[in-house]
Structures are given as structure tokens and as C-alpha cells.
Write a structure and sequence with these properties.
It contains 20 helices and no strands. The protein is mainly alpha-helical and 412 residues long.
């Protein structure tokens, strides 16, 4: 759960955190009996707990397809990410990965920790893949082939221009959006979304991750991973790694704000995509990561800590997003609130300020025009309230007792 200090400051986080913890425990116990499926869902929980939670809302067939799709792409990403693999070894693996998923005997040693286990025992993923419906298999193969080719292209090419940046993000994330749209359509639950909107769903998430992970990527051993486009960072420093040095703090924040402003261009496409979804489970599956992305950008904007350590949403707020995101009105409200946070942090002297404000005002108008903001109760932006610490502690203890009782109770 979240830290005690955070819960005392945000006591309304406690109940969603407790629900999230209980849901996570239930997922750990709901492991399929078949060894290959047991491996896949156990591995999914290890590589992404939040994704493992959200995916549970999908129907069984679609959930299995999305699980395998995610693990296949995580494996492909593990090969791309491993800077210890020589280029002449890495390239053919990336290009042929879509064929390897049909071979239950194939595996490749790379990665670290849980990703090494995924790669060493990839035969479980292939075995599960071969049990999926043909429509699901074709969609996963197609996206894996295109993504592998794109990754191979950028192994030998640096991200120089903003167009390069968009192209790279398309290969590693936009194609995920296209693939998910194909899976939703194959399940006969949604109309096939346009490539443009599907691509934006992926780009918004990927650009957020690239911005947030600057320090981790630049400090990668044995070789830095550099995804910020030269066209942007060269306006502020001579080398991308210069942004992490304290003497360049002002320029680093300006560059960061420029990068966030670039990501904001995808917001309205994301809202269009989500507003067209019909299936409630698919809607929630898509909406939660997008709200997390705009929330993360709100934290990162104008924040020098991006260059000093880890910047991420507190767990209590994450729990509330997962618990309370149910309708498109919730999404409009969250986008409006987080956009307001960014807007409040814009310095009119910032080089990107005019463009930033324009994009924020545009998405806020879309949210207002939806009519969903009337008489809403925001759980993101609210005035500070004064709480009695003793009362909060009593509430926390009662909830903890309830949680312990439920967790210990036998299930029949």
C-alpha cells in the first residue's frame, strides 16, 4: 500500500488502496491450471502489476489474447533494450521475431530479472499463442513483424528529428494501439478504429514514458539509451546527457516542458478513440492508462526532479484512478483536472509556453463541450482539508482489520 505519510495527507486514498491490494491478492490466487497459461499470467503480474489488474476486466478469450500480445511485445522489447547484445546478433532476432512465436522450442537468453525468465522460458508463451483463435494470432503476428522491423531500423538510426521521434514511437507503441484495436475487432466487441486514432493512443503513453524515464535511460549501462529527439534538446544543450547536470537546470526544465508539450498534441485523438468504445470492460482497460499518462505528465511538467530521480503518481491516486474510472465522463473530468494542473505550472517566460497553453486550452474546451463536467465531484483537484490525525488512524486500523479478516477467510 502507499506510505503512511501519504495516506495521512490523502485519507480518501485509503479505501481505494485497500481495494487495489485485495484485487492484487485475488489475481495472484487465480492462476490457470495449465502450466503454460500459469506461467503467462504469473509473468504478466511480475512485469506489470497495474496491467495485470486492468486486464482482468476483459472476457476470457480477449483477456488471453491481450495477455499473450503483451508478453510477446515485452519479449521483443527485452531484446531491443538489452544493450549488451551485439547489433549483428540483435537485428535478425528482431526481424524474425514474428516467426519465433510459432515455435514452442524457441528461446533466447537476454534481459535481467523477470525479463530473463520470460526469455529463457518463452516456449510457454509460444504454446499459449498457438491456442489462440486464428484472428487473434494473425493480429499479433502482423504487429510483431512490423514492430520488429521498426526496432531494427532504429538500432542503426538515432532519433534526430521530431518526425523520427514520432516514427520510433509508432513502431514501439503506436503499433500496440493498432494491435489492440485489431484484437477488440477480432473479438467482435468493437468497430475497427482508424489507424490514426489507434496510433495516438500508443504515442501518448510512449512519449510519457520516454519523458519520465530520461534519467534511467541516459544512465543505462553499458550504453545510454537516447530517445529524446535532437531537434528538441539541441535548442537547450550541446549533449543530451548535459540535461542531468545541475548547472543546466534551467535549460533542462525548458527542454522538459518542450517534450511534454509535444506529447500533449495526442490528447484529443485519445479522447476521440475512447469516446467511440462500446464495451465497458474494453473502455476501462483503455481509459486507465491514458489517465495515468496525463497525470504523469502533470507531475513531470516544469519539474527538475525528472533529471534527479523517479517521478511518478502516488499509489493512492493510482488506486483511485483504477477504482473510479467507469465512464467517458470520468475521463473528461480527469483530463480536464490534470490539464488544469499543467496549466497552473506554465511560466509565461518558458519558450514553449504559448504552444503549451494552446494545446491545454483546446483539450479543456473539448472536455467542457462534452457536458460531462457539470456537477461533477473531482477526486484529483480539490482544496486541502483539515483532518484529525487520530480519526484517520482509527479509520486506517479498522480497514486494516477488515482486510486481514477477508484475506484470512477460507474460500469455498
Amino acid at each position: 500500500m502507499g506510505s503512511l505519510g501519504a495516506m495521512l495527507k490523502h485519507p480518501d486514498d485509503i479505501y481505494p488502496l485497500l481495494k487495489l491490494k485485495m484485487a492484487a491478492r485475488n489475481i495472484e490466487k487465480q492462476v490457470p491450471p495449465e502450466p503454460h497459461w500459469a506461467f503467462c499470467y504469473t509473468m504478466l503480474h511480475k512485469v506489470s502489476r497495474s496491467f495485470a489488474l486492468v486486464i482482468q476486466q476483459l472476457g476470457t478469450d480477449l483477456r488471453n489474447a491481450v495477455c499473450i500480445f503483451y508478453l510477446v511485445l515485452r519479449a521483443l522489447d527485452t531484446v531491443e533494450d538489452d544493450t549488451a547484445i551485439e547489433t549483428d546478433v540483435k537485428l535478425p532476432i528482431l526481424i524474425d521475431f514474428h516467426r519465433h512465436i510459432y515455435d514452442p522450442k524457441w528461446h533466447f537468453a537476454c534481459g535481467t530479472k523477470e525479463y530473463k525468465v520470460l526469455m529463457d522460458e518463452f516456449h510457454h508463451v509460444s504454446t499459449a499463442f498457438l491456442e489462440l483463435g486464428k484472428g487473434y494470432q494473425e493480429a499479433i503476428e502482423d504487429i510483431t513483424k512490423r514492430m520488429g522491423a521498426g526496432m531494427a531500423k532504429f538500432i542503426c538510426k538515432e532519433v534526430e528529428t521530431v518526425d523520427d521521434y514520432d516514427e520510433y514511437c509508432h513502431y514501439v507503441a503506436g503499433l500496440v494501439g493498432l494491435g489492440l484495436s485489431k484484437l477488440f475487432h477480432a473479438a467482435e466487441l468493437e468497430d475497427l478504429a482508424t489507424d490514426e486514432l489507434s496510433n495516438s493512443m500508443g504515442l501518448f503513453l510512449q512519449k510519457t514514458n520516454i519523458i519520465r524515464d530520461y534519467l534511467e535511460d541516459i544512465n543505462e549501462i553499458p550504453k545510454s539509451r537516447m530517445f529524446w529527439p535532437r531537434q528538441i534538446w539541441s535548442k537547450y544543450v550541446n549533449k543530451l546527457e548535459d540535461l542531468k547536470y545541475e548547472e543546466n537546470s534551467d535549460k533542462a526544465v525548458q527542454c522538459l516542458n518542450d517534450m511534454v508539450t509535444n506529447a500533449l498534441i495526442h490528447m484529443e485523438d485519445c479522447l476521440k478513440y475512447m469516446s467511440a468504445l462500446r464495451d465497458p470492460a474494453i473502455f476501462k482497460f483503455c481509459a486507465i492508462p491514458q489517465i495515468m499518462a496525463i497525470g504523469t505528465l502533470a507531475l513531470c511538467y516544469n519539474n527538475i526532479e525528472v533529471f534527479r530521480g523517479v517521478v511518478k503518481m502516488r499509489r493512492g491516486l493510482t488506486a483511485k484512478v483504477i477504482d473510479r474510472t467507469r465512464t467517458m465522463g470520468d475521463v473528461y473530468a480527469a483530463f480536464y483536472d490534470f490539464s488544469s494542473i499543467i496549466k497552473s505550472k506554465v511560466d509565461k517566460k518558458d519558450p514553449s509556453a504559448t504552444k503549451t497553453l494552446s494545446r491545454l486550452e483546446s483539450v479543456q474546451k473539448t472536455c467542457r463541450d462534452s457536458g460531462a463536467l457539470t456537477n461533477r465531484k473531482s477526486y484529483i483537484v480539490k482544496s486541502e482539508q483539515s483532518y484529525n490525525s487520530a480519526l484517520i488512524m482509527v479509520m486506517f486500523i479498522i480497514l486494516a482489520i477488515i482486510y486481514a479478516y477477508v484475506s484470512a477467510s477460507p474460500r469455498f
